[in-house]
Specification:
Layout (H helix, E strand, L loop, with lengths): L25 E5 L12 E4 L1 E9 L23 E3 L1 E11 L3 E2 L5 E8 L3 E8 L10 E20 L11 E3 L10 E3 L7 E2 L3 E5 L6 E2 L5 E4 L4 E8 L7 E6 L4 E7 L4 E8 L7 E10 L4 E11 L22 E8 L7 E3 L7 E9 L2 E8 L18 E3 L2
Protein name: RapA2 cadherin-like domain-containing protein
Keywords: Signal
Length: 383
């Protein structure tokens, strides 16, 4: 996997020979969505178990305040994480992992098999550090396949060979800024096997409203769905016109949200229908709605902000240009004015958009600043 900032990277084999300081932090699994770990949190024998992974960097399991062993003056903050799980005494099926830390993005993919699971590595942007506290790292769904398995944390994944750890300003005993399970802390609680549970129940998509929109404009409808087991939900387009787009805005924990976005051209005037589905990863629900597109006022083409182009005399500078037309007409670039050393050449043009390249080849006689102004017409002129 890629290295995280100052930690969570490198070869993990050296971990087997290094000592560890006192335990700190508390990582646990929660299967009943109450945010804490109790005897009620179990891996169900039948059907899906929705598992939340929590990490408290500010407290140990007994509630005492954590202290950075290497430097007590350093906060036990967090800027990245990677979690490893394993099932013993049986086999399971793991779903994809849903990251619940909006400040962090995936930098290295996870992996799983019939017993082991790795979330993959997630990290905040460089310079972003979260204060000590309790964090919901993410969610996954686990189904028992055979035996009576329990679910536990492990330090090193046997499938990725990466450590169960989180990045922190506090120096770790193994990696400079990585607090590693089994070496820097030991307080963890997994899920024992529990009888009961039930078959997976499909999510329910709320009814969709019919939509009307003018050509060249945008219409948005918020969509909602619920899941009895509290699983993360994903929305998708099942069928619909080319100008229809569906996105998941919040996978939720049993209550998900998304949106339908319509952006038709003038050529799309008329009536049609669209269909949207929601899935919990195993089962799904879907609904259909009607779409009416009417002719509207003419909309001028648009050109995104063009960054300043700085060129050294005697050299060549280039800048990519793009333009769009909300009504679906075909825009074209042309040079409307400017110095002789600047030229515009079209690259591609189609209904609703075009691209071009601005080339500047100044000499020492051209040193100075030139200001250019785009024209707003179906023939988009740029210099």
């Amino acid at each position: 996997m890629k290295s995280l900032p100052c930690g969570l990277g490198g070869i993990a084999l050296v971990l087997l020979t290094l000592p560890s300081p006192a335990s700190a932090q508390y990582m646990y699994l929660d299967s009943n969505r109450d945010g804490v770990h109790t005897a009620a949190d179990v891996l169900h024998e039948v059907g899906p178990t929705v598992v939340d992974i929590w990490l408290d960097t500010a407290h140990n399991r007994d509630g005492s305040v954590t202290v950075c062993a290497a430097n007590p003056a350093t906060q036990m903050n967090i800027f990245s994480y990677l979690v490893n799980l394993t099932a013993s005494a049986g086999t399971v099926s793991y779903s994809a992992f849903t990251n619940r830390m909006p400040q962090m993005g995936l930098i290295s993919a996870g992996a799983s098999n019939s017993t082991d699971f790795s979330t993959g590595a997630f990290s905040a942007p460089p310079g972003t550090v979260l204060p000590p506290g309790k964090y919901l790292l993410g969610t996954l769904t686990v189904d028992v396949v055979s035996g009576a398995p329990s679910l536990d944390f492990i330090s090193i994944s046997p499938i990725t060979y990466e450590p169960n750890a989180f990045g922190s300003s506090c120096p770790g005993s193994v990696f400079g800024n990585t607090i590693t399970l089994g070496y820097d802390w030991f307080d963890v609680d997994g899920l024992p096997f529990g009888t009961g549970g039930g078959p997976n129940q499909a999510p329910t998509l709320s009814p969709l409203a019919d939509m009307s929109v003018l050509a060249g404009e945008v219409a948005i409808q918020t969509i909602n769905a619920t899941d009895p087991e509290g699983q993360p939900l994903t929305f998708a387009e099942t069928s619909g016109p080319p100008f229809m787009f569906v996105a998941t805005t919040d996978q939720g924990s049993g209550s998900g949200h998304g949106e339908i976005r319509l952006a038709p051209f003038l050529s799309d005037v008329g009536t049609t229908a669209g269909s949207v589905s929601v899935s919990d990863g195993t089962t799904s629900d879907q609904a259909t709605f009607h779409i009416a597109v009417s002719a509207g006022p003419n909309h001028p083409p648009f050109v995104p902000q063009i960054p300043r182009l700085t060129v050294i005399a005697g050299q060549v500078g280039k800048e990519f240009l793009s333009a769009g037309d909300p009504d679906g007409s075909t825009p074209h670039f042309q040079k409307a004015g400017g110095p002789a050393f600047a030229s515009v050449h079209g690259l591609a043009a189609r209904n609703g958009g075009a691209s071009a390249v601005l080339t500047a080849s100044p000499t020492v006689c051209d040193v100075g600043l030139t200001t250019v102004t785009p024209l707003r017409s179906r023939s988009v002129s740029e210099t």
